[in-house]
Amino acid sequence: MVGGDQAAMSAETEVVSLLRGQLADIISGTFFVLIGLIAFSIAAIRRRGGVRVLVWLGLWSAMFGVNQLAYSPAIVEALPHSFVTARPLLSVSFTYLIIVAAALAFLELTLGILRRFLQLHLIVDVAVTVAAIGWFLISGSESAFLTCQQLLAVLILLALLVTLSVPKLSRRFLVLSRHRVLTIGTLIFSAEALWVNIARPLRFPVPAIYSSLAFAVLLLSFGYVAMDMIGANERRLLSIDKELEIARQLQFSILPGSPPEVRNLRIAATYKPMTAVAGDFYEFLAMDEHRAGFLIADVSGHGVPAALIASMIKVAAQSVNGCAHDPAEVLRRLGSILSSHLRGQFVSAAYLWMDTAVGTALYSAAGHPPLLRWRKADASLTRIESNGLLWGVMPESDYPVCNIPFAPGDRFLLYTDGVTEPENAAGEAFGDRRLEQIVRDNQSRTASEFSQRLLAEVRAWQPASRAQQDDITLIVIDVV
Fold first, then answer.
1. Closest CA to 349 of 368, 326, 325
2. Is there a single domain that holds both residue 340 and residue 236?
3. pLDDT bracket for residue 156 (50, 70, 90)
4. How, if at all, do strands 347-355 and 291-299 pair?
5. Measured between alpha carbons, how far is 136 from 128 in angstroms, rounded to an integer?
6. Residue 465 — left, alpha, or beta (φ > 0 → left; ψ -120 to 50 → alpha)?
7. Dihedral class, residue 124 (left if φ above 0, else alpha if ψ from -120 to 50, else beta)
8. In-domain check, residue 249
């Protein structure tokens, strides 16, 4: 019994001694794996632009930590035999992939010639990694390309040190506005690496924990500036969101507040921008209780540039009140005013003038989808195309005018191509025929009800997971 107790105590002492010798590596490896997991978690939670740097930082840290743990006999003994068999290949892969992750992380912080240098560096890193893994599988040698990898690490570290240390270079080649913390971390890591390379040939003892501590300082300083950069990007995006909301409110404010009061007409206007601001526009030019003009326009593209041009149309429309009864002149003048400001963009437009006193409408368009006219008397649907050139093609253009008599029960529909162009999951456009069928099937609905029904049909046509594909504007005019 005494002998057995002594043997057990001796085995326990050996285990404790073994763990004590590996404890620093186990703690260090676990720390770096944990840092990697934290970086991945933050990147997953943020899910906004700029988080790729955290992904690469997480990979860099996690691979370093796993590599340290993979060399700990205590950890290896606790893992399945299959892992022990694969450990050499895993270790070689991570040893060389670490420099790839580091280059990808640094790449996110750079601009200009430094970014191009890192891109070239990254290509060489990947080539060395593939060669090292391939050579290991052939020969079993883990260190054949280690000198080459160390040289690559020195090059990237020197490039970063020089850039961080020279204010003129950092302002020109780094996306960071503040990099003092990263500069300090890089200097500490570089100083430790230099000391190791001097001390080891001179046989001075250098505890391995120093390298881990220096690398931890570098990683934490890198993580700090990465979070600072992401925070600055998010503050910028929030500022842009606020500005876009203001722009949205301003754009809605330039649209007519309500349809004009025209005897014997019921008018419904619907405006659904795809983004915060849109390139669609509509305006009413009401003359008196019997006469009014209806203008609709669609600027090419989306977002702020298109919205600015739409705002210009609003200003320009104030100058055509005197010729509101002449669709060709309205379109010609507006196109002439806008031509010098479009700068490569194009605008389609349509203008309908209605006079209920005489029961006649005049219509003209500039490259716009056709006017749809439902005629109650014979239950017919007509596509009316009276198009000249898009605004922006030529400073001056002629616009043909179509004369359209109307009667009670007739319906007119002006719309932008956001109605007909949305696609379903199979890539099929909503199309003119489907639009025309909806017009035929919904004559009993009021102008407002018809607009809502049409929008619902267009939305149902698109996949539920897909956002609205284009700006949509509708003007429905019923003769009563």
1. 368
2. no
3. confident
4. antiparallel
5. 12
6. alpha
7. alpha
8. no
In a domain, 459, yes or no: yes
pLDDT tens, 53-63? 888 989 999 98
Crossing angle for the helix pair 431-441 and 447-461, to the nearest 10 degrees: 140
Cα gap 221→210, rounded to integer Å = 17
Tokens standing for residue 161:
């040190």
**What residue numbers bound the domain in which 7 lies?**
2-242
Report the percent of the chain where pLDDT is more than 70. 90
Q: What is the mean pLDDT of residues 130-149?
A: 88
- Can you give the CATH number for the domain in which 320 is found? 3.60.40.10
For residue 248, being part of any structural domain is answered with no
Q: Which residues pair with 299 in a beta bridge?
A: 347
CB atoms under 10 Å from CB of 472, counted, come to: 26
**How long, in residues, is the chain?**
480
For the entire predicted model, the pTM comes to 0.62
State how many domains the chain has.
2
Residue 191 sits in the same domain as residue 307: no
Residue at token pair 């305006």: 283
Residues 31, 75 within the same domain: yes
Q: Please report, for the domain that includes residue 192, its CATH number.
A: 1.20.1070
Phi, psi of 477 (to 5 degrees): -125, 115
* Structure tokens that stand for 254 in this block: 């330039």
**Rounded Cα gap, residues 248 and 288, in angstroms:** 31
Are 31 and 216 contacting, i.e. CB atoms less than 8 angstroms apart?
yes
Three-state secondary structure of the chain: CHHHHHHHHHHHHHHHHHHHHHHHHHHHHHHHHHHHHHHHHHHHHHCCCCCHHHHHHHHHHHHHHHHHHHCCHHHHHHCCHHHHHHHHHHHHHHHHHHHHHHHHHHHCCECHHHHHHHHHHHHHHHHHHHHHHHHHHHHCCCCCCHHHHHHHHHHHHHHHHHHHHCHHHHHHHECCCCCHHHHHHHHHHHHHHHHHHHHCCCCCCCCHHHHHHHHHHHHHHHHHHHHHHHHHHHHHHHHHHHHHHHHHHHHHHHCCCCCCCCCCEEEEEEEECCCCCCCEEEEEEECCCCEEEEEEEEECCCHHHHHHHHHHHHHHHHHHHHHCCCHHHHHHHHHHHHHCCCCCCCEEEEEEEEECCCCEEEEEEECCCCEEEEECCCCEEEEECCEECCECCECCCCCCCEEEECCCCCEEEEECCCCCCCECCCCCECHHHHHHHHHHHCCCCCHHHHHHHHHHHHHHHCCCCCCCCCCEEEEEEEEC
User: Tens of pLDDT along 194-208?
Assistant: 777 676 666 777 677
The answer to whether 59 and 35 are in contact (CB under 8 A) is no
Residue pair 353/362 in contact (Cβ under 8 Å)? The answer is: yes
